[in-house]
Amino acid sequence: MKKRKNHSPEFKAKVALEAIREELTLAELSKKYDVHPTQIGTWKRAAIENMAATFARRGAAPEQVSAADVDKLHSKIGQLVVERDFFGQCLAPVARDARQKMVSKDHKLSVRRQCALLTLVRSNLYYEPKGESAENLRFMAIIDKQFLETPWYGSRQMARHMKRNNHACGRHRVRRLMRLMRLVPIYQEPNTSKKHPQHKIWPYLLRNVVIDRPNQVWCADITYIPMQRGFLYLVAIMDWFSRKVLAWRLSNSMDTAFCIEALKEALAKHGTPEIFNTDQGSQFTSGNWIDVLSDAKIKIRMDGKGRWIDNRMIERLWRSLKYECVYLHGFETGSQARSGIGKWLVLRFTRFADKAG
């Protein structure tokens, strides 16, 4: 076994100096001093990198970081970690669509880092939804019509109904489409209400309450509106006593913004009610919706499990609207749907007022 050579610092400096002069190649220097060319190259780089230290003032101690500065840096790192966690917790209730809009490709932070801070999956930024197929839209219209007739049908019963009518639509597809349309059967199932851990559920306030005047209790609900090539969502604000629709909005997504627009319009035109009643949908438990009601000093009330009967007035409105307007016209665009639904509501409540008078 060949014994490893230990070269002195003086020898290394001499060889490195000749390598820096570049009079001889590394191969020639290797042959001259019996040192591997790679080793000579390493000594050359080290000599060049440490050359500045040769001209430093004698006795000058290398710059050192004080313990106080280290403690200060550690404290700053801890503060940034706490602030990052706080930022993440505050963004948790925010809808994913809203967080995706916060990502900027022109920001100094990379898109990957922005997604990590906003708890987003980066691939979702580039995903473009394809929408439902024509067959699924046809099935949704059939399910919606049948649900108005038999609102106690769950996915199993609805799938059997589809099979009886020779529609190739199994239970799993029926269940997904019913969830998409927000169709929930009126019977109570065990442990079906999964509350958002950061959304407050408000108490029940209408037990044994007599509704005998306008603006005593308002309610709100969202329904699915089938179109020729897709679907929209409709939210309506209704007065319990007069059964009048105070405001409504159409949207192509289930965000909270269009619900809040309808609520603000109803408050501006008709004043404030004493109590506002909704179900426990995420739009009606969100912070933005609750803030509008709290600022107006309105008592907030939410349906509990099995209290489907509390929304029977507005559910009856949905049935009439769909049979008398939506299914007959088969709207093609959102503007046509807004115009048609608006005309139907005006005509309906004009007849209602004449009948009441």
TrEMBL record:
Q: Which InterPro entries does this chain map to? A: HTH-like_dom (IPR025948), Integrase_cat-core (IPR001584), RNaseH-like_sf (IPR012337), RNaseH_sf (IPR036397), Transpos_IS3 (IPR048020), Transposase_8 (IPR002514), Transposase_IS3/IS150/IS904 (IPR050900), Trp_repressor/repl_initiator (IPR010921)
Q: Name one Pfam family in it.
A: rve
The organism's place on the tree of life at top rank: Bacteria
| An example Gene Ontology molecular-function term | sequence-specific DNA binding
UniProt GO BP: DNA integration; DNA transposition
Integrase catalytic domain boundaries:
210-357
Q: Which PANTHER family match?
A: TRANSPOSASE FOR INSERTION SEQUENCE ELEMENT IS904, TRANSPOSASE INSF FOR INSERTION SEQUENCE IS3B-RELATED
Q: What is this protein called?
A: Transposase InsO family protein
The lineage is:
Bacteria, Pseudomonadati, Pseudomonadota, Alphaproteobacteria, Rhodobacterales
